[in-house]
Amino acid sequence: MKRSEKRGANVIVIGAGIVGMAAAYFLRSAGHSVTVLDADTPMAGATGASDGAVSVASKKPGVMMVLAKAARDFYVQLEADGLLRDLFHRRPTFMFARNELEANVLAAHGADLAKADVQVDELTVSEFARRIPGVSRNVVSVLAVPGDGHALGYQIVAHLLKLSDVTVVRHARAKRVRVENGKAVGVETDSGFFCGDAVLVAAGLGSADLVGLGNFICPRKGQIIITDREKDNEPALEGPLMSAAYLAAKRNFEASRKNPISLVIDPLRTGQFLIGGTREEGVDSRTTTAHYVSEILRQAMDIYPAMGRRRVIRTFSGVRTATVDGLPVVGFHPAITNVFVATGFEGDGICLGPLIGKTSASLMTGKQVDLDIASLSPSRFVSREGTDEPQPTAAADETINAATTGA
Ligand SMILES: Cc1cc2nc3c(=O)[nH]c(=O)nc-3n(C[C@H](O)[C@H](O)[C@H](O)COP(=O)(O)OP(=O)(O)OC[C@H]3O[C@@H](n4cnc5c(N)ncnc54)[C@H](O)[C@@H]3O)c2cc1C
């Protein structure tokens, strides 16, 4: 089906996270027969163990900011069209700095957002305190991005599963894409062989071995804390409180190697708080630790002491799929005809998932797309012949690198 107009093709999607399920939904809507294979169950990966910030504010400058703007617009459209009714909610993001180092990061980030035509409002500390009752004065600067949003990945996937009649095969771990004459003919799993005209590899971390990305993808664990609720079904604050340390970690991962904690306090619509989190490089486990949980809570209390009244009801962790150059991997596999790859979304896959799912489905069926995703192509890691050495793209600018190290 690669770059052709073939209708009614039989597509195998590997991975029932938000990206795989969104693509499956749009492929099925376009008239194709779709089988989704998951090694475990739908939402068993990062999609079921994450927050749901649909945020442009948090993205690093460049292609990620551009994609996030388009992804946020797509959520707005899907909500208005009814496909994701009541599953996406708009809200502002508040970004704060606690010291001079963080203030430099915040100022640079605000300038990059403004350059990308994103509305950014500067708030005084008093204005911030008025909008966020209960916040402390331990901040030196604050920026707000009014147009962000929130969606829970597991709710999106559950909804798409209910709506579409794609076949989902649980506990079918893909072992290999079977290739004949340079063309994919199906997928070998531990539950047997599934033949197909095209294969979408959207298996998060599991994608690495299937398409030769083992040297370029790694796990990055995140620990999260959940509180109880004060009122039912009403967020306690207008929007999330995002530290500049979080922005620094997103702009340049080196910033969080020394201190993996980057604070975000997210008011959920249930009335609960979701407080994150960590970025623990190379860690692929779902445990939470007293060390990080206590430090996240200490930082959260320092900024928002009003939370002290809340009960902590649960902690959990999820594992992000990170890439060596900090960008997702999306596009046709350069060496195997009819294989499309969509993985490596690190902490941005809930935001980007529906848009990338739709884009993958369109490209696989030979349609043109407006989105420029050339810089995400797997060909930056995998050549026609096999796997190349990593060639990371330039990270954030030097000023930010210097300002954020150790932030
Ligand atoms: C703590 C935390 C907080 C986050 N917060 C946010 C946020 O606020 N906003 C945001 O946009 N993003 C956030 N993310 C990131 C987001 O959750 C991920 O980027 C997104 O869920 C990735 O979706 P996916 O479909 O690519 O992969 P996954 O959800 O990981 O799905 C991959 C699926 O593939 C299956 N699989 C794996 N290997 C195989 C195989 N060999 N064969 C068959 N199936 C296989 C797995 O079982 C899984 O179901 C967060 C992540 C974490 C961990």
Short description:
The protein is of the alpha+beta class and 407 residues long.
Cofactors and ligands: flavin-adenine dinucleotide
Derived from helix and strand composition plus strand pairing, the structural class reads alpha+beta
CATH topology of the domain at 90-148 and 218-323 and 397-404: D-Amino Acid Oxidase, Chain A, domain 2
- CATH architectural grouping of the domain at 90-148 and 218-323 and 397-404: 2-Layer Sandwich
In CATH's first tier, which class of the domain at 90-148 and 218-323 and 397-404 applies?
Alpha Beta
Q: Summarize the amount of helix as a percent range.
A: 25-40%
- CATH homologous superfamily descriptor of the domain at 90-148 and 218-323 and 397-404: D-Amino Acid Oxidase, subunit A, domain 2
Choose one word for the global shape.
Answer: globular
Q: pLDDT below 50 for ≥5 consecutive residues: which ranges?
A: 2-6, 387-407
Number of strands: 21
Please report the distance between the alpha carbons of the first and last residues. 48 Å
Largest sheet: 9 strands, mixed
- SS summary, helix count: 10
> Could you tell me the mean pLDDT?
91
The percent range for strand residues is 25-35%
| Rg estimate, integer Å | 21 Å
Domain FAD dependent oxidoreductase: 11-362
Keywords: Membrane, Oxidoreductase, Transmembrane, Transmembrane helix
Pfam family, one: DAO
GO molecular function: oxidoreductase activity
